[in-house]
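hey so u asked for the seq, here:
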Amino acid sequence: MFSLCTRLALLAGLSFASAAQAELTNISTNALQSQNTETSGCTIVGRGGKSLNGLKYLVILAEGKSSDSDPTLIVKSLNLNPAVTLTNDNWRDPTVQNGVPLPFVDFSPLLRAPAKLTDSAVLIYVTPDVALCAFSKEKTGGDALRAVSVSITDVTGYIQGATSLELKEEAIWDGVSPAMGVLR
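ran it, structure tokens below
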């Protein structure tokens, strides 16, 4: 049995952890990957923080750290039925959702452009509580290991605070745009 002080400390720790999680805006992982070995990063989209029309907007990146790296990206919902899968090979190319190409959206004013054209990216909007994983592996090279960074960043606040008239006038922020991957 825990003492009263221990129980209060545990409750305080849980409250702090919940508050910290609500403000989380980015998760990332650095790893080695190959054509046969994936890197992954997963999250459950929280309810805290900013939202726009009840939705969260995320940029998911797979960025190679070596000059010969060419990462691909697959984003999968884990708790939606039917499941949603989004793929991207080069960030300036359209994202593909469940086999259907989407129009290209330049998200770089929201965050930053990936370092190389061969890096991969997906811009999506999601409802809170969606669980998703981002998987990356090299397009070529067999078992040769290359460093990669996979990140999931909430850009909802950037959209709300956008100063670019062009960015604000984009119809993609309405929650029904066919130009972005949808996980809801």
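Confidence is low (pLDDT under 50) at residues 1-23. The chain is about 15% helix and 35% strand.
lmk if thats what u needed
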